[in-house]
Amino acid sequence: MNTMVQYISERLHPYYSESEAFELALWVAEEISGHDRTHLILESDCKDIKNISYLEKIISRLIKKEPIQYIFGYTDWMGLHLKLNQHTLIPRPETAELVEWICSMDWDNKINRERPIRVLDLCTGSGCIALALKHRHPNWDICGVDIQEECIAIACENSKNLNLSIEWKVGNVLSTNILDILPDEVDIIVSNPPYVRECEKKEMSVNVLAYEPHLSLFVSDADPLIFYASIARLYKSNHLFFEINEHLHNETHQLLTSLGYTDIQTKKDIFTKNRMLYGCLKK
Fold first, then answer.
1. Which of 47, 149, 164, 176 might form a disulfide with 134, Cβ 3.0–4.6 angstroms?
2. Max alpha carbon distance in the chain (Å)?
3. What is d(CA 180, CA 232) in angstroms, rounded to the nearest whole number?
């Protein structure tokens, strides 16, 4: 094994599992040396370390549990190289499953229109969902909305870097005038809104609590479905996809039922948690 990878992995092992420490060591070594993983695993030399102090600073930040995605400012997710910063959540595997679920649907039979399918991604953050959908379906018209200008700036940069044309807007989905900036009609709404209750903070890991944006994560214990209720009421006809709090699956399901949604379906994530919800609303 490359001695740099081995050194970093040994430094991190007291703070991470063996597999996590090795993965982080590979990522750091790739960034510092400019070599790919194959080279790092097969070659034992570490002559490419030009700045030991820089390496030690990275290790120190990792020991403090700062996510490596924020240290280097990017992540690779669903085949997309995405820029991130402290205003944007790190895309999760569960969110990738939501995208895959949407892409697996037979939209030619569900939506019979001559124009391109229109998709609205609310609480878009880095734009990861909108970008992944556009990557899979280049002909779809997609609009991403977020309350934070800093997030929309990152989303714009990501779409430019990936050469994916998406309309981005700054807007608050809880505002009474949000429809003023949205399309007149959409076919698909997808959202991964804030859904972690304040009471659940104690269950979360340090790297999330200390570094990821709380505005994108948390809702009050008193009204945890506030974003879902607002989004589900926006249009009179649409296909709706949510990433949800597994502890509030029944409540979210009941909310959609009360608002007239039909064909409501639940999908479990890779950890067998009720993580995604679909519903259809027709005029």
1. 164
2. 66
3. 16
Q: What is the distance between the alpha carbons of residues 175 and 121, in angstroms, rounded to a whole number?
A: 16
Structure tokens that stand for 164 in this block = 């994916």
How many whole angstroms separate alpha carbon 143 and alpha carbon 189?
10
| HEC-encoded secondary structure of 107-119 | HHHHCCCCCCCEE
Per-residue pLDDT of the chain (283 residues; tens, 9 = 90+): 578 888 999 999 999 999 999 999 999 999 988 877 877 777 766 555 667 889 999 999 999 999 999 999 999 999 999 999 999 999 999 999 999 999 999 998 888 778 899 999 999 999 999 999 999 999 999 999 999 999 999 999 999 999 999 999 999 999 989 999 999 999 999 999 999 999 999 999 999 999 999 999 999 999 999 999 999 999 988 999 999 999 999 999 999 999 999 999 999 999 999 999 999 998 7
**Residue 217: C-alpha distances to residues 9, 124, 193, 200 (Å):** 30, 13, 8, 11
Contact (Cβ atoms closer than 8 angstroms) between residue 143 and residue 166: yes
E strands of 60-213, at which residues?
74-77, 80-83, 118-122, 141-146, 167-170, 188-191, 196-197
86-281 architecture in CATH? Answer: 3-Layer(aba) Sandwich (3.40)
| Residue in this structure with the two tokens 């909108």, named with its chain if needed | 130
**Domain extents for the chain?**
3-64, 86-281
